Structure prediction request, 83 residues.
Amino acid sequence: MNAVSPEKPMPFPSVSAPRPSVAVWPWPIGLGLLTTFGLLSALLGQHGVWLALSWAALSIPLIVTVVCLIRAWRRPSSKGGLS
Prediction:
């Protein structure tokens, strides 16, 4: 029951079910491993292929972060207005 209409019960707001941890963690773990590989390859290999691998491995997490931030800023907030 509610104050506006005493004969009708008030419906609960729809809440999305929490995602299992298996669905949440693969991207952060992958980006963390890629960053670790990039840092180690930059530290241990100073020339040639290692230099290119370190640049690529450290650039990919940065690009993914920028893309996700741009998408989040363009999407309206669930609280109304832009986030």
About this structure: The helical segments are 21-24, 26-44, 49-74. Residues 18 and 24 are 10 Å apart (CA to CA). The mean pLDDT is 82. DSSP finds three helices and no strands in the chain.
